[in-house]
Amino acid sequence: MGDLEETLFEEFENYSYTLEEYYSPESDLEEEVHLGIVHWVSLVLCGIAFVLGIPGNAIVIWFTGFKWKKTVTTLWFLNLAIADFIFVLFLPLYISYVALNFHWPFGIWLCKANSFIAQLNMFSSVFFLTVISLDRYIHLIHPVLSHRHRTLRNSLVVIIFVWLLASLIGGPALYFRDILEVNNHTLCYNNFHEHDPDLTLMRHHVLTWVKFIVGYLFPLVTLSICYLCLIFKVKKRSILISSKHFWTILSVVMAFMICWTPYHLFSIWELTIHHNSYFHQVLQAGIPLSTGLAFLNSCLNPILYVLISKKFQVRFRASVAEILKHTLWDVSCSGTVSEQLRNSETKNQSLLETAQ
């Protein structure tokens, strides 16, 4: 490796972790074996997210968007499914990147787009979960206020605001994401600045803490307060609520916390690399696993709806039964028409033969 490549790699290694793993051209055999196992586990998690996420979120989008009556609740879950569905569509790019030993052959624009979609999914998902929890709290504890302001029009305003906010916060990925040729590998990484270590450090810290505070800590505190207050108020006032609906939303929130907490913790831990490279190996193993676990969240929500929500199960079965009914009716009608045509043709042929 030449002096220029060594210089670029030294600069690159200090800020290359975000959403992608650290690539090192020089590592011993035992370390390579361990990292290889970690990377394959990450690939398996991403593969599961893709295989289950595409049909699962597509089904939720189909029913909440086209088959069921438009309500405030269905709009929340529809947009949550849309965010997850868009993300899993881009997952094959990331899977290919890891499978090719962190070689990015797709160009700079897909490098930027792939990272932006991942950020957009993370922020929009947690924001919609926060909105769903706030909506549930206000609907149960302040029904008069909810009845007055909980309208489809207001919910659409909130939805547009959430998408714009998620796009704004995830926007830096479009600016900073870049590709770099290192040791015959094209890397997709965060190019905070090539020649100013202080600016690199500042941008990395700011973006990491904004992502943690806005995309995780603030929503987590809000969700916790909502559910603690809801539980307390329900017990105090003896309010009757649908336990299944409550556990459905709570399970979705818990799934998000379990999947995304390790990712944010490793992202913060990654900041220490600027000052101490002792934890390189830990981060090399931890970041791909936490990233794969975070991506897995995109396929869990539809599964949770089906397993927990009785209302979703009933409406899902009713919708499927309706689709099958129409399908069978169309097939039956087509069969009847075909049979009538065949009988008509046979009758006409008999008449011709008689006439002859």
TrEMBL record:
<feature type="transmembrane region" description="Helical">
    <location>
        <begin position="37"/>
        <end position="63"/>
    </location>
</feature>
<keyword id="KW-0472">Membrane</keyword>
<feature type="transmembrane region" description="Helical">
    <location>
        <begin position="246"/>
        <end position="266"/>
    </location>
</feature>
<keyword id="KW-1133">Transmembrane helix</keyword>
<keyword id="KW-0807">Transducer</keyword>
<dbReference type="InterPro" id="IPR017452">
    <property type="entry name" value="GPCR_Rhodpsn_7TM"/>
</dbReference>
<dbReference type="GO" id="GO:0005654">
    <property type="term" value="C:nucleoplasm"/>
</dbReference>
<feature type="transmembrane region" description="Helical">
    <location>
        <begin position="115"/>
        <end position="134"/>
    </location>
</feature>
<keyword id="KW-1003">Cell membrane</keyword>
<dbReference type="GO" id="GO:0007204">
    <property type="term" value="P:positive regulation of cytosolic calcium ion concentration"/>
</dbReference>
<feature type="transmembrane region" description="Helical">
    <location>
        <begin position="75"/>
        <end position="95"/>
    </location>
</feature>
<feature type="transmembrane region" description="Helical">
    <location>
        <begin position="209"/>
        <end position="234"/>
    </location>
</feature>
<keyword id="KW-0325">Glycoprotein</keyword>
<feature type="transmembrane region" description="Helical">
    <location>
        <begin position="286"/>
        <end position="308"/>
    </location>
</feature>
<dbReference type="GO" id="GO:0005886">
    <property type="term" value="C:plasma membrane"/>
</dbReference>
<dbReference type="InterPro" id="IPR000276">
    <property type="entry name" value="GPCR_Rhodpsn"/>
</dbReference>
<dbReference type="GO" id="GO:0097004">
    <property type="term" value="F:adipokinetic hormone binding"/>
</dbReference>
<dbReference type="InterPro" id="IPR002275">
    <property type="entry name" value="CML2"/>
</dbReference>
<comment type="similarity">
    <text>Belongs to the G-protein coupled receptor 1 family.</text>
</comment>
<comment type="similarity">
    <text>Belongs to the chemokine-like receptor (CMKLR) family.</text>
</comment>
<dbReference type="Pfam" id="PF00001">
    <property type="entry name" value="7tm_1"/>
</dbReference>
<keyword id="KW-0812">Transmembrane</keyword>
<keyword id="KW-0675">Receptor</keyword>
<dbReference type="GO" id="GO:0006954">
    <property type="term" value="P:inflammatory response"/>
</dbReference>
<dbReference type="GO" id="GO:0042593">
    <property type="term" value="P:glucose homeostasis"/>
</dbReference>
<keyword id="KW-1015">Disulfide bond</keyword>
<dbReference type="GO" id="GO:0004875">
    <property type="term" value="F:complement receptor activity"/>
</dbReference>
<feature type="transmembrane region" description="Helical">
    <location>
        <begin position="155"/>
        <end position="176"/>
    </location>
</feature>
<dbReference type="GO" id="GO:0004930">
    <property type="term" value="F:G protein-coupled receptor activity"/>
</dbReference>
<protein>
    <recommendedName>
        <fullName>Chemerin-like receptor 2</fullName>
    </recommendedName>
</protein>
<dbReference type="InterPro" id="IPR000826">
    <property type="entry name" value="Formyl_rcpt-rel"/>
</dbReference>
<dbReference type="GO" id="GO:0007200">
    <property type="term" value="P:phospholipase C-activating G protein-coupled receptor signaling pathway"/>
</dbReference>
<feature type="domain" description="G-protein coupled receptors family 1 profile">
    <location>
        <begin position="56"/>
        <end position="305"/>
    </location>
</feature>
<keyword id="KW-0297">G-protein coupled receptor</keyword>
<dbReference type="GO" id="GO:0097003">
    <property type="term" value="F:adipokinetic hormone receptor activity"/>
</dbReference>
